[in-house]
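Task: sequence design from structure.
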């Protein structure tokens, strides 16, 4: 069975012959542990990969996204990267004056994808393919307005805020519709909604403003027979049920910020958990036994004839031997279950 079928069977809870896997690699790991990373990738190849956009028009960016110094993204937001391998924070709001709201640059260059090349990429791979780009309305508003300003916007909701939100949303709708014309297997949403112990905003505001946006993205994708994956860091327990309700297929979240047993009791078998293993404490500081127990905890609470993708992130502080142990343990569990 190829990787794509493994992932699809996991998403549909159809007892895949093994649990599919994916390693997220930050440039920090490529710089610090190139040899160890190569060994891990050779031993445990990904089942989920990303298609390049093959843009016909270059993006209006400056600098390197993960290079020390200033980086300007395709929307015009400027970041200050303090070291190589890690993306920095946005320095100042691009949109500090609401009078400029209608002049915000929408990066139409992102819509110049080469569908023929993307389809060839998908055909040449036996993997489950997602786009390399993702839709992130909440985070994009943060980058344009800065977080502290955005939180005030969410409370006051001036008409200019609504204009900006709709501008971002309509662009993402157009982008999703375009990618749905390709042969990728799904679309990829990304918004970090959680702090360490709570949601960043009142769930009522989230349900009023942002849930309808995600619902529309998911409906477009499902109408075009695409799955929908989403990443969201932090404590997001209050909205997992909402995401299931609107049809999300797979969620990547910081499970260990929450109560995994409670997550399983409420949501096992209703959505696929696309990782992860605790990157705050276990991957940097945990023992081999700690990693073994963490993988078992995820499996025992969240797996039900599928519904789990073995994923973790190799980022700042993580020990390569712990990353290796994560995937070794998932393979061990698969072998035990398939005896």
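Answer:
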């Amino acid at each position: 069975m190829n990787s794509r079928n493994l992932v699809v069977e996991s998403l549909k809870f159809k007892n895949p012959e093994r649990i599919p896997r994916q390693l997220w690699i930050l440039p920090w790991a490529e710089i610090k542990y190139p040899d160890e990373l190569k060994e891990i990738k050779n031993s445990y190849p990904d089942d989920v990969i990303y298609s390049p956009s093959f843009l016909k028009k270059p993006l209006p960016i400056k600098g390197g996204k993960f290079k020390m110094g200033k980086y300007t993204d395709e929307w015009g937001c400027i970041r200050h990267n303090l070291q190589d391998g890690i993306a920095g924070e946005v320095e100042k709001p691009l949109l500090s004056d609401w009078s400029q709201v209608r002049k915000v640059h929408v990066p139409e260059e992102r819509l110049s994808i080469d569908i023929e090349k993307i389809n060839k990429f998908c055909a040449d791979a036996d993997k489950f393919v997602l786009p390399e780009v993702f839709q992130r309305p909440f985070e994009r508003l943060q980058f344009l307005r800065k977080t502290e300003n955005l939180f005030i916007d969410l409370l006051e909701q001036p008409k200019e805020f609504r204009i900006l939100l709709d501008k971002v949303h309509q662009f993402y709708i157009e982008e999703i519709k375009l990618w749905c014309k390709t042969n990728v297997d799904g679309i990829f949403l990304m918004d970090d909604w959680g702090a360490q112990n709570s949601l960043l905003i009142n769930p009522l505001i989230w349900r009023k403003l942002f849930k309808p946006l995600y619902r529309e993205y998911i409906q477009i994708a499902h109408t075009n027979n695409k799955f929908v994956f989403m990443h969201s860091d932090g404590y997001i327990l209050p909205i997992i049920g909402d995401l299931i309700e609107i049809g999300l297929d797979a969620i990547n979240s910081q499970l260990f910020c929450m109560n995994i047993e409670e997550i399983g009791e409420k949501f096992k078998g209703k959505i696929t958990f696309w990782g992860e293993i605790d990157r705050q404490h276990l991957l940097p500081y945990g023992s081999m036994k700690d990693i073994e127990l963490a993988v078992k905890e995820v499996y025992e609470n969240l797996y039900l004839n599928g519904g789990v993708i073995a994923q973790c992130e190799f980022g700042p502080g993580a020990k390569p031997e712990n990353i290796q142990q994560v995937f070794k343990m998932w393979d061990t569990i698969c072998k035990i279950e398939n005896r």
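The first helix runs from residue 3 to 11.
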